[in-house]
C-alpha cells in the first residue's frame, strides 16, 4: 500500500502522461494521417495495440468476432474493480478524422500506459477496449450484445469538442436502407411499361417530410439518395435511399421508425415498386453516470481546465456508448480542442493540430486520475455503482 496522499498519487499520474506525450502525439498524428472507415480499421487497431503489448498488457484481438476490436488487460492481482477505457479509431468517409477518433483512441491508450507506470497504486483490473465502427455499424452495440461489458464496473472515454463538458445527452438512433425495385423501360417511347424506382424514393422523402409536423421536438430524420438511376432516358429499375432516425429514447424511436417505414411502404404501393428494408443496429440513449462525471470534472479542474454546462436543449447527436451505459456505469465527457464542430473539414484539421493534441493529453490525464479514484477510494466506487444500480432498478420497474 502506498504511503502517498491521493494528491501525490495524481501528481505521479500526471508526470507519467507527460512522459508519454511525445509518443502519444506521434500515435495520434499517425492515425490522423491514415484514416480508416468503420470495420476497416486494421492498421489503426494495430497501432493502438502495439504500445499496450510492449507495456505488458494481455492482448485479445478480434474481440467478440470483430476483426478490428480488441481488449488489452492489466490485472493487478489484487481484489478491486474492473475499469475500462474505451478506444475509438474509425474515420468518416471523405472527411477523415473529423470526429477526432484519433485523439479518443490515443487518449485511452495513453491513460492506460500511465496507470501501468504506477501499477503499485492499482487494485483490480484495468482494460482498454478497442471499439470499432462508432460512425457506422455500432461496434459497441455488438460488443455489448456479446457480454464484453457485463463484468465491468465503470467505463470511460473522452471526446474532443468545441466546449469542455462532462455531461451531455445522446439520442437513440437507428438507420435503415430502403431498396426499391421497379421495371426499366424507355422513358420516351414506352414509359407506360416501366415502374420508376426513383419515383418511389422521391415519394418516400415526400411522405417523411409530411410527417415532420407530427413529430415531437426531439425527433430527427435525415436521409440521402444513394441510387437514383443511371440514365435520364431510362425509367429507373432500382432506387435506394438511406435514412437515419433519432429520438430521445429507444421507446420513442420505435414509433418514429414505424411511421418512416410506413411512408416507404406507401411509396412502394403508390408506384408499384417492390420494397426491401435493411435495418441497422439501434443506438440507445445515453445514461450518464453523474457521480463518475463529477469525479472526472474535479480532476479536469485540478488540471486547470474550465468546464462549462451542457446545452439546456438540443445540440446533441448519437453514439453507441449509449448501449454500454445501459449495462454499466459510463461517462462520455468532452474536451475543447477549438471553435470547431464535429463532422466538418475544420474539425478534421483541429484533430491533427497542437490544440487537438493538448486536449487529448488533458483527456488522458483526467481518465487516468478518475480511474485512480475508483481503484483507491472504495467510497467513490460504491457511489458510482450505487447510482447505476438505482437507475437500472428504476428501468426494470418501468419495463
From TrEMBL:
Taxonomically, what lineage is the organism?
Bacteria, Pseudomonadati, Pseudomonadota, Gammaproteobacteria, Enterobacterales
Q: Which UniProt keywords apply?
A: Hydrolase
Q: Which family does it belong to?
A: Belongs to the peptidase M20A family.
In this chain the Peptidase M20 dimerisation domain maps to: 177-264
Keyword Hydrolase set for record: yes
User: Which top-level group of life is the source organism from?
Assistant: Bacteria
Pfam families per the UniProt record, alphabetical: M20_dimer (PF07687), Peptidase_M20 (PF01546)
Q: Read off the InterPro entries from this record.
A: Amidohydrolase (IPR017439), Bact_exopeptidase_dim_dom (IPR036264), Peptidase_M20 (IPR002933), Peptidase_M20/M20A_hydrolases (IPR052030), Peptidase_M20_dimer (IPR011650), Xaa-Arg_dipeptidase (IPR017144)
Instruction: Identify this protein by name.
Output: Peptidase M20 domain-containing protein 2
Amino acid at each position: 500500500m502506498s504511503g502517498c496522499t491521493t494528491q501525490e498519487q495524481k501528481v505521479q499520474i500526471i508526470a507519467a502522461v507527460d512522459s508519454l506525450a511525445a509518443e502519444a502525439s506521434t500515435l495520434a498524428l499517425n492515425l490522423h494521417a491514415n484514416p480508416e472507415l468503420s470495420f476497416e480499421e486494421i492498421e489503426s487497431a494495430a497501432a493502438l495495440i502495439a504500445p499496450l503489448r510492449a507495456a505488458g498488457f494481455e492482448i485479445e484481438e478480434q474481440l467478440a468476432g470483430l476483426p478490428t476490436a480488441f481488449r488489452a488487460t492489466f490485472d493487478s492481482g489484487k481484489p478491486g474493480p474492473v475499469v475500462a477505457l474505451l478506444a475509438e479509431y474509425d474515420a468518416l468517409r471523405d472527411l477523415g478524422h473529423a470526429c477526432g477518433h484519433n485523439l479518443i483512441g490515443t487518449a485511452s491508450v495513453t491513460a492506460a500506459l500511465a496507470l501501468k507506470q504506477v501499477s503499485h497504486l492499482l487494485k483490480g483490473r484495468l482494460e482498454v477496449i478497442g471499439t470499432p465502427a462508432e460512425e457506422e455499424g455500432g461496434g459497441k452495440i455488438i460488443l455489448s450484445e456479446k457480454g464484453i461489458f457485463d463484468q465491468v464496473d465503470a467505463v470511460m472515454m473522452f471526446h474532443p469538442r468545441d466546449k469542455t463538458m462532462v455531461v451531455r445527452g445522446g439520442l437513440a438512433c437507428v438507420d435503415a436502407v430502403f431498396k426499391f425495385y421497379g421495371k426499366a423501360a424507355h422513358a420516351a417511347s414506352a414509359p407506360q411499361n416501366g415502374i420508376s424506382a426513383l419515383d418511389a424514393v422521391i415519394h418516400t422523402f415526400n411522405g417523411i417530410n409530411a410527417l415532420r409536423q407530427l413529430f415531437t421536438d426531439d425527433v430527427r430524420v435525415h436521409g440521402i439518395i444513394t441510387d437514383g438511376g443511371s440514365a435520364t432516358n431510362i425509367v429507373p429499375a432500382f432506387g435506394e435511399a438511406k435514412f437515419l432516425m433519432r429520438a430521445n429514447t429507444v421507446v420513442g424511436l420505435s414509433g418514429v421508425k414505424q411511421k418512416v417505414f410506413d411512408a416507404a411502404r406507401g411509396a412502394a404501393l403508390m408506384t408499384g415498386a417492390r420494397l426491401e428494408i435493411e435495418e441497422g443496429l439501434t443506438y440507445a440513449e445515453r445514461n450518464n453516470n453523474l457521480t463518475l462525471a463529477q469525479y472526472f470534472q474535479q480532476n479536469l479542474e485540478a488540471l486547470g481546465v474550465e468546464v462549462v454546462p451542457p446545452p439546456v436543449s438540443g445540440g446533441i447527436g448519437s453514439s453507441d456508448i449509449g448501449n454500454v451505459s445501459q449495462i454499466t456505469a459510463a461517462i462520455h465527457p468532452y474536451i475543447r480542442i477549438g471553435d470547431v464542430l464535429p463532422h466538418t473539414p475544420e474539425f478534421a484539421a483541429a484533430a491533427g493540430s497542437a490544440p487537438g493534441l493538448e486536449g487529448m493529453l488533458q483527456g488522458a490525464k483526467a481518465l487516468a486520475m478518475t480511474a485512480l479514484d475508483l481503484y483507491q477510494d472504495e467510497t467513490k466506487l460504491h457511489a458510482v455503482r450505487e447510482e447505476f444500480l438505482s437507475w437500472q432498478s428504476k428501468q426494470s420497474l418501468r419495463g
